[in-house]
Amino acid sequence: MKTFAIAACVAVAGAVAGATRTGDADPAPAEADGPPREAAQEPMTFFVTSVGPGDGANLGGLEGADAHCETLAAAQEAGGRGWRAYLSTINEDGSAAVNARDRIGSGPWHNQVGKLIASDIDELHSEAANLDKEMILTEMGDTVNGRGDNPNMHDILTGSDLDGTAFTSRGYDNCGNWTGNGEGMARVGHHDRLGGGQHPTSWSSAHFSRGCGQEDLRGTGGSGLFYCFAAGG
Known about the structure:
Elements: H1 2-25, E1 46-48, H2 61-75, E2 83-85, E3 109-110, E4 116-118, H3 121-124, E5 155-157, H4 174-178, E6 187-190, E7 207-208, H5 214-219, E8 222-230
Parallel strand pairs: 5-8
Antiparallel strand pairs: 1-8, 2-8, 3-4, 5-6, 6-7
């Protein structure tokens, strides 16, 4: 009986050892190549200018404003994307009006940190647009002073109505279609969606400026800044 019990124990031990050796022979799970890669950031296709040209609403017309957008973008290695200023002009001296919404391409547009602000032109001019002080960044990724900050700089030049078409009303001169720095007025939006005016929460068409000079723009809470969009190029 003792001999049989010893033999049985030896057999069991051998089986366990065999099973252990078989398990050791299984291939180890393949190791991952590394941590998962982060999705590439969307390129910047929208910003508000960190500075204006410095001559009030005299931007050198649409051509000068577009060039300012390109210069600021190029300084951040984002040039050559067909940058256009979000500015409208009115019918003046027989020239046709220009709508800001028709100048900026079809979208989508992303801010300096790659966040989507709007997928297309209709969303851009709707309540679904992702536009407020924290999303409307400069070409360097900074926020711009808004209502409650010192100085307040939330008035952004647009010359546009709520839908991005040229703003028109009796006596409105659009600061000589962005060539004037004296008397007159420009239509401005509020980048922080706060304040007073006819449409205080509109980023594109909140109210009129006090005048066209640099001090006039500052007097109503601005600094001669404007929006830039990449239209493609």
